[in-house]
Amino acid sequence: MTNFLFSYIVHFMNYIGGVLILNEELLTTWLKLSNTINNDRLVTGLSFNEAMVCGFIAKAQKENRFLTASDLCAETRILKSQMNAILRSLEEKGMLARQRSQQDLRQIELQLLPDGQERYMQTHQQVLSLVDRLMGDMPEEDIRTLISLLYQIIQNFDKTVKEA
Q1: In this structure, are residues 58 and 117 in contact, taking their beta carbons and an 8 Å threshold?
Q2: What are the Cα distances from residue 44, in Å, to 15, 66, 135, 146?
Q3: pTM given for the model
């Protein structure tokens, strides 16, 4: 079945009495946006997860803090096995070093190396440029509203996870 036909059938099935169910429309829109960004690979250099992990480590380093793999798992909700694969990949690329903590010898601290910081910043600039293009000529007020709505979604998600 072609993507067009499948999309049409899904779209048709989501109508009840001529009104599209709002949660279905939101889900469809969210998936279209995610699919567009992920499939077009508009940002290159690092995978999404690698860039996200580097961002957390870079922020911590600016604040003179070190993060551990467990810290990153808690912050990103990435499974420990996946996090280890991401960290291993960053190490193999020469971007990341692991070192034993001087304060707590049980802990392994993560540090972006100079090449890692540079490559992360290049990717981060690509992402910022992409965000600018995605927002196009949207008024600032609409962008601020979108940001607020996304934070509300995140809060609702966190509340749902805690209740589960």
Answers
A1: yes
A2: 38, 27, 20, 26
A3: 0.72
